Amino acid sequence: MPPPRHPFRAGFRDCLPFVLIVIPFSTLFGVVARDAGLDLVQVMSMSVIVIAGASQFTALALLQDGAPVFVALLAALAVNLRMAMYSAALVPHLGAAPLGARALAAYLMVDQSFAVAVRRYEESPEMTVSQKLRYYFGCMAVVCPIWYGCTLAGALMGQAIPASLSLDFAVPVCFIALLAPLLRSLPHLIAAFVSALVTVAFAWLPWNLGLPIAAIAAMIAGAQAELFLARRARAKAGCPA
């Protein structure tokens, strides 16, 4: 696929479908956070600083269950470890960008924009670093402002939204839409399977502690699968290990 003529606009356009998920997802967080006892400043501070719905919901749920703060932070960190992997995946594409641009890209990184951007980079390897940055920020221009705005709307509306609307459907739908296209290799599938299996196996642990355990187990399983496949490929090629 040839590089887009207007990378920023192309990124904005390609991320537009996620608006249908981000709106209810972020609105739901605002509602749930207010229901959990956070004031408006606390809700918005959490959303602006973290910008990671899954870890925000995780920390909020644990705090509601009476878990110690360090446990909530540990679980949120475990959920957000995927961002470290996202960053590593972006290094070949954006590693040569100026420090300020990379810092802003790291702050604004969310699942949707990462998934869309990486896929576009792989389909258009001729894109320059400048084009990739503009495309990336075009993706962010869709997701992040809506995340902030709808979190604020949800926090202001609070319990005025009836439970019958069941906005919580947005959480699993969002992650299914993001995860499915990325499961393109055996290590990816193994990591996803191990994550699901360990999560279910340790569901009995208090404070959702099975979640960080599952995240660590999935990363180890995926990495070991990558190493195994690399060793097998070297063996077939007759190269030393």
From TrEMBL:
Query: Topology versus the membrane, per the UniProt entry?
Result: Multi-pass membrane protein
GO CC aspect terms = plasma membrane
A Pfam family reported for this protein in Swiss-Prot or TrEMBL? AzlC
The transmembrane residues are 15-34, 40-63, 133-157, 163-182, 189-207, 213-230
Could you tell me where this protein is found in the cell? Cell membrane
| Single biological process term from Gene Ontology | L-valine transmembrane transport
The organism is: Limimaricola cinnabarinus LL-001
Name of the featured protein = AzlC family protein
